[in-house]
Write a structure and sequence with these properties.
about 525 residues
Length: about 525
């Protein structure tokens, strides 16, 4: 009989930390632990205290962290061949971590027993039984990860099952079936889990890797056929192609299988936790990540937007707020009137369906995108476009002219960049110059220098990101380019766009939109 709640076991701090280019400090791990506890996962695997000093330090500091929802887990292997558990330093390190739960992995593929451990199959069974039984007398909960279980079961099902029996006889609280190489297809997972659940007298869990892009599907099918414990990582971090992604698994179990795994209010933290872990790991956010990505509930086609304005479920499989996300309407040359009306609502711009300006905006949008402008990534520029069309825009300054000089005096030295700009502001002529570490930076500095005397709030604005894309292939350095700029102040962030065959002009367009958006917003 299926449990009323599926246990969620997070291994981001151990398995996830084995991702290429990722290295969590002790402080990073402590901060992630607090986020995972807020999310409400049942277990947080902190690391392998017998393998490195960093994990030893983490467990020592983690004792002071007051967890409200989760239990911290120490991870390690069965004791070494030829030693007893009480004489094995790794086993001692597990107990020294002072966690109420311990996870032990052991070999369940006879190929590994022979080739990696170089011991007999019976001796491997003794390692499993001895380690689990020894730890079970000293820890509240012991979980057994059957490493390479699905490969082992495919090769020698009777021996793989005997490894589970050894852990079960030793007192294991959960038998976790590991697709360690991540190469097992979903139908094989289903049939194997069905047999194990029928065979075992102990709860069964699932630990999937993503080498054939089936880790989430394999985890879900395991739950459907009797697994009551699922292991994975935030954002699918992990060695090689990663682990099963808990950001997808949790809502799939709770919203699609309708089986509880965390509290409804906690599930609203999924997007926040996903982004937090990426920030700590110094990774870019994956826009198309199911459930929590920026694009997960983004709508671009006019037909889609027209439908979701009536009923969101026409093109959304869940309400995005359930996972802490929100609906987004994108603006592009595929947009229809519904897109424009919806964006007007978001911006607080009065725009009626029958207004001529609506068609003017649609026409202008399509013409500009044909020239290379892209407004789905530059919504501040689109808001300005709408306000100009409706007569709601205000000019804060007029350009009289600018000049940018780049001078390289000697080989091996960085070029010098200087910009001079002349503006008319409130009837005054302002003529200033500034330097920068490049021509766009110099122009930005000169523009701000000219305006900050009149609009001191511009000192709050920071340029956060700058992207250039070549639009006309085959024209080399004479190609048209699109510049996207992301800016921000103490309250929010916004993006603007410029397009030209001249990268300085395209950058100027985006910079001016950024400044005008800030000034309009403050008014």
């Amino acid at each position: 009989m299926r449990r009323k709640t599926i246990e969620i076991y997070d291994t981001t701090l151990r398995d996830g930390a084995q991702s290429e280019d990722i290295s969590f400090s002790v402080e990073d791990k402590l901060r992630i632990t607090e986020q995972l506890d807020d999310l409400g996962v049942h277990y947080i695997e902190g690391g392998w205290p017998g393998s490195n000093p960093r994990d030893i330090a983490f467990f020592k500091k983690a004792r002071k962290v007051q967890l409200r929802h989760s239990r911290l887990v120490a991870f390690g292997s069965t004791h070494r061949p030829g030693k007893k558990p009480q004489h094995d330093k790794n086993i001692k390190a597990l107990l020294d971590a002072e966690t109420s739960a311990i996870t032990i992995f052991g070999k369940s593929w006879d190929f590994h027993v022979k080739e990696a451990l170089k011991i007999s199959r019976n001796e491997n069974l003794e390692l499993i039984y001895n380690t689990v039984s020894y730890l079970k007398k000293r820890a509240e909960t012991v979980l057994f990860d059957a490493e390479h279980f699905f490969d082992g079961y495919a090769n020698n099902p009777d021996y793989a099952l005997s490894c589970l029996e050894a852990a079960q006889d030793g007192g294991a609280d959960c038998l976790v079936l590991c697709d360690t190489n991540g190469g097992t297809i979903t139908t094989a997972i289903r049939e194997t889990v069905k047999r194990v659940v029928k065979h075992a007298n102990t709860p069964v869990g699932m630990h999937a890797h993503n080498d054939i892009d089936c880790a989430v599907a394999n985890s879900i099918i395991a739950v459907e056929f009797g697994a009551v414990h699922v292991q994975g990582t935030i954002n699918g971090l992990g060695e090689r192609c990663g682990n099963a992604n808990l950001i997808s698994i949790i809502p799939n179990i709770q919203l699609k299988l309708r089986v509880k795994c965390i509290e409804t209010e906690q599930m609203k933290k999924l997007r926040e936790v996903s982004r937090f872990v990426n920030e700590i790991a110094n990774l870019r956010h994956f826009k198309r990540q199911p459930y929590t990505g920026d694009s997960a509930f983004a709508h671009k086609a006019g037909v889609h937007v027209s439908a979701i304005r009536k009923r969101s479920e026409t093109y959304e499989h869940i309400k995005p707020e359930l996972v802490g996300n929100s609906q987004r309407i994108l603006i592009s040359d595929l947009a229809g009137r519904s897109n424009i009306l919806r964006k007007a609502e978001e911006f607080g711009i009065p725009l009626k369906k029958d207004k001529k300006q609506l068609q003017d905006i649609v026409t202008s949008l399509k013409e500009l995108e044909n020239q290379g402008f892209q407004f789905e990534g530059a919504e501040a520029s689109f808001e300005l476009l709408m306000k100009k069309a409706l007569g709601l825009h205000k000019r804060f300054f007029d350009l009289i002219g600018f000049r940018v000089i780049i001078e390289k005096r000697k080989e091996g030295e960085d070029p010098l960049s200087e910009a001079t700009i002349m503006l008319r502001v409130s009837g005054h002529i302002e003529h200033t110059a500034a330097t920068g570490n490049g021509p766009v930076n110099a122009l930005d500095n000169a523009l701000r220098k000219a305006l900050e005397r009149f609009y001191p709030q511009l000192t709050e604005v920071r340029l956060l990101d700058y992207k250039v894309r070549v639009l006309t292939a085959g024209k080399g350095t004479g190609a048209r380019v699109r510049v996207l700029i992301e800016s921000g102040d103490k309250d929010k962030r916004w993006s603007t766009v410029g397009v030209s065959v001249n990268i300085i002009e395209a950058s100027y367009q985006a910079l001016v939109d950024s400044i005008e958006y800030k000034l309009l917003k403050d008014e």
